[in-house]
Amino acid sequence: MPRAGLSVERLTRAGAELADEVGFDQVTVSALARRFDVKVASLYSHLKSSQDLKTRIALLALEELADRAADALAGRAGKDALAAFADVYRDYAREHPGRYAAARFRLDPETAAASAGVRQALMIRAILRGYDLAEPDQTHAVRLLGSVFHGYVSLELAGGFSHSAPDPGTSWVRIVDALDALLRDWPAPAP
Amino acid sequence: MPRAGLSVERLTRAGAELADEVGFDQVTVSALARRFDVKVASLYSHLKSSQDLKTRIALLALEELADRAADALAGRAGKDALAAFADVYRDYAREHPGRYAAARFRLDPETAAASAGVRQALMIRAILRGYDLAEPDQTHAVRLLGSVFHGYVSLELAGGFSHSAPDPGTSWVRIVDALDALLRDWPAPAP
DNA sequence: GTGGATGCCTAAACCCCTTAGGCAAATGCC
DNA sequence: GGCATTTGCCTAAGGGGTTTAGGCATCCAC
Question: B79 contacts in A (CB within 8 Å)?
Fold first, then answer.
C-alpha cells in the first residue's frame, strides 16, 4: 500500500479548505482523515491533537490576512489605507468564511503573541499615523477599528444583514467614511 | 426512585448557568444530565436535541439582554441612552460570558425573527431617533453600533485587550463618546 | 541489499448524541 | 382510597469524534 504523503503543512491547508467548505467548527480530525482516505489515527503522527490542528489553521488564516493587508497597504496612507485595510478584512471573510472563523479561534497568549495577529495590530497603528492621534487616544482608536471590522464582518457572516436594504456593501463604505471622519476629528473626553 | 423534576425551563436555566461556568461550547446534554444526576437519555423527553438546548439558552440570553436594555433605556435619550445601552451590553457579557456567547448562537431565520433580538434592534433604532439621521443613514448607523458593541465585547472577552494599558473600561467610555460625536455629525457620502 | 527511521495501520478506551422500548411514579377519575 | 392513564426516567444500543499503544510495511541512506 503506497503512502498518502501526509505532512503538517498539507493537513493544515486541507483543514483550511475544509473549514471554508463546511465551517470551522465542523473541522475535525476524522473529516480530514476521510479527505485523505486514511485512517484517523494516522493523522496523530503529524498532529498533536484536534486543538493543534485548529490552532494551525488559525495561524495560517492570520498569516494570509496579514499578507493581504500588507499588500493592500503598500503605497497608501490616510483614508485610502483605512479603506484598503477594511476591504481586505471583509473580502477575506467573505471569500474564506471558515478561515476567517479560524482566525478568531482563541489562541493561548504566547501563541497569539507569536502569530501574525500582532502584524495586523501594527498595521492598524500604522494606518492611524495618518491621523493626528496621541496616546492613549491612538489605542482607543485601534480598539474601535478592530471592533468595527470584526463586529461588522462577523454580523454579516452570521446573516445579520441579509435580506434587508441597503445592501451590506453600501453600509460598509459609509461606515468606513464615517470612521475616517471620526479619526480626523477625534473628540476630547466628555466633560 | 423519586423523580428529578426536570422541565424545559429548569434545563434551560441550568444550561445557561453551565455556559457561564464552562463556556457555551462546553454546554452539552451529557454535562447537563450529570448536573441533575440523571441519565442522559432522560433529557430527551424534554429536549429535542443538543441544538434545541443551545437554541433555548440563546433565546433566554437574548431575552435577558433585551430586558436589561429596556430597563436601562427607560427615561433616557440621546447620549445618555447610547451609553446606557452600551454598558448593558458590555456588563452583561462580562457577568455572563457563556450566555453572551449563546446570544451569538446562529439561529435559523424564523426563530431569530421571533426572538428578543428584534427588540434589541428596535431599541437601537429608538436611540438613534435622538440623533438626526434619515434613512438610509439610520440603517448604516444601526449596523455600525451593532458592530462596535458586539465587536468590542467579543474582543475583550477573547482576551484581546488584556494586560495592556489603557484599561478596557476607559477605552469603552471614550469609544462611546466618539460614537456619540459621530452620530451627531454623521458625514455625507464621500465624493 | 540491508538497517533504521518513518508512516500508516489495527485495536481499544473514552466521551458525546440520539432513538427505542420498558417499568415505575405521579395524576386524575370515580 | 383504588384504579387507569399519562408521564418521567431508565436500560440498551448504534453512530461519531478523540486519543493512545503497538505493529508492520515502506522508504531512504549507506
Answer: 190
Mean pLDDT on B56-68: 98
User: Per-residue DSSP letters for A125-173?
Assistant: HHHHTTS---TTHHHHHHHHHHHHHHHHHHHHHTTTTTT-SSPHHHHHH
Q: Using the predicted structure, report yes or no on whether residue A1 has a pLDDT greater than 60.
A: no
Given an 8 Å threshold on Cβ–Cβ distance, is A178 in contact with B152?
Answer: no
- Nearest alpha carbon to residue A78 among A41, A37, A132, A28: A132
Work out if A5's Cβ lies within 7 angstroms of strand D.
no
pLDDT band at A34 (very low <50, low <70, confident <90, very high): very high
Is residue A27, in this structure, part of any structural domain at all?
yes
**Which CATH number is A154's domain given?**
1.10.357.10
Whether the pLDDT of residue B164 is over 90: the answer is no
Q: How many domains does chain B have?
A: 1
Q: Is residue B52 part of a domain?
A: yes
pLDDT for A3: 67
A1 in a structural domain: no
pLDDT in tens, A17-28: 999 999 999 999
In this predicted model, what pLDDT tens digit does every residue of B79-96 receive, in sequence order? 999 999 999 999 999 999
Cell of A113: 503573541
Total residues belonging to chain A: 191
Q: Residue written as cell 423523580?
A: B3
User: Could you tell me where the beta strands, DSSP code E, fall in chain B?
Assistant: none
